[in-house]
Model the fold of this input.
Amino acid sequence: MLRRFLVPIAPLLLGACATVALPPESPTAAHVPAETRGLVSAADPRAAEAGAEMLRVGGSAADAAIATMLALGVVEPQSSGIGGGGFMLYGDAGGGVETFDGRETAPAGADGQWFLDGQGQPLPFMTAVVSGLSVGVPGNLRLAEEAHRRHGKLPWAKLFEPAIRLARDGWTLSERGHEFLADAKNRAAHQPEGLALFYGADGQPLPAGTRVRNTALAETLEQIARKGAGWFYSGENAARIAGKVAAETPRQGAMTVADIAAYQAKVRPEVCGAYRAYRICGMGPPSSGATTVYAILKQLERFDLHTIGPRSPTFWHLFAESQRLAYADRDRYLADTDFVSVPVPGLTDPAYLSRRSALIEPGHTMQTVSAGTPSGLALAPPQGTGPEEHGTSHFVVIDDAGDAASYTSTVEGSFGSGIMVGGYYLNNELTDFSFAPAGPDGRPVANRVEGGKRPRSSMAPTLVYDASGRLILAVGAAGGSTIPVQVARVLIGVLDFELPIDQAIALPVLFSPGDSISVEPGTWLEAMIPQLQALGHARVAPRAMPLKANGAQRTATGWIGAADPRSEGAVVAE
Done:
């Protein structure tokens, strides 16, 4: 019998105060005894229950992850869905790891001028977002298809049942969902379909507690359940997608049916490396997640973080400095390896990261930071981290065999491009490309727009194995360019500070991708600002960030799961 454990929506941590303390023991983690069928941790309890329903009838972690993704597309349309894409890590209890790339692709007609105006200047960001220019060919369903082919146990149609029920019978709009509708009306109500679905006759967003029925999405999901993912990528449905996108694309080269039909999910090489006694595995390019998370960790390995502890400004200073180095490399080198030679072995080489680590001093801040020179480097100038998105969701599944799926799904920004087809929003993923095709020196940038290319991502689904090769941790996050930092913080919290997964997720966030530091408001980090400044960080300020993590941890007595207290997340365990 399923038992539902809800992580409460609560203050993240104790407010800033003179005495820094560890977070309280809430939110409550769901404990899963070893003999049960597993758990699902997701950003919405209804989606977590959808995945757990698959586990209850003998489904694999892949089956449950797919059902969770589909249900999230119904109840959390601002963040994920079949109109977007994602990355999944699939790990077995014995140490095997596969990584699935369902990142969206640019249409064949896109080129380096895609986001430039008539004068050759980059378009305003939101002008590009709410248009066909931002839409990539969706990848989530091809990813799901491939993961199911390799690891599924249940019939394909079975995985759609919870999402179809939610869409057809209705689901209750949450307070958080209402807030997104109010804050992102320019996208959510961009087309008549979204306006009619989520807003009243007065044009105001439906109040929290309203029952929403999305019959158009139910019909779409029923077709895919019966006919397979190929139905989505061909025929009438592909024509509808291409037509909608082309109608809102103010230039030549708009998405075509051929672009949609050509889409393929890819099984990419996993990126794994040793950190202390652990093996950390993540998603390689076009995601920057694995290399950035690993660099942050490995550059800190020479420091005794356990002794320093999370209460010390020294730790947060070291964490900030390591981020600065890791993000300098991320911004220079990471892109789609089908188009750019990305020096992944060089970026994850322990000797290289040891040299980078040597630049970090406990009592001193680096005056300037630049990308390093790993072996096999790509010729690309530095680029900024770009705008942060709010349209992403991460979820974790552990099944009865001890296999795990760590899956990050996204439509990029809240409600993606605002373009709706068949009851779902299409992504605005292409705005993750660099708008300028070349740097100041005229050299082409690695993450420039090219036809068929996948934009760089920050998504960082991660699996951790102990020294004996046992899977012990699955984690990931949502929140744009903050994602690698959120994940690295959780890993340090569990592996170095020896916190349980719920407390590690509840740790505050410090984000330092460049020469300024953002600290999470209302946490102990605000009280540390003067101490960080005394260490040489001149630009430190509290700033709200889109933070949302989920994870699962093996303990001596079984698995526990946790969802971010900043979200409406939940853990459902059987």
Remarks:
- The first strand starts at residue 3 and ends at 6.
- Residues 414 and 498 are 35 Å apart (CA to CA).
